[in-house]
Amino acid sequence: METNKPGLAIMTSGGDSAGMNPAVVCAVEYATQRGYKPYLVYDGLKGLIANSIVPASKDLVSGIMHKGGTALRSSRSPEFFDITFRTVAYQNIKSHGIEKLIVIGGDGSFRALNQFYNDFEIPFAGIPATIDNDIAGTDYCLGVDTALNVIRQSIDSIRDTASSFSRAFVVEVMGRHCGYLAVTSALSCGAEVCLVPEIEYNLDTIGARLKAEIAEGRKYIIAVVAEGTKMGEYITRYINDSIGMEARLTVLGHVQRGGSPTVHDRIMAYKFAVAAVDALDAGETNAIMTFKDGTYSHLPIEQVADAKYKLDPALLKLAAPLAC
Ligand code: F6P
Question: Which of 58, 68, 169, 173 has the fewest CB atoms within 10 Å distance of its CB?
Answer without folding.
Answer: 58
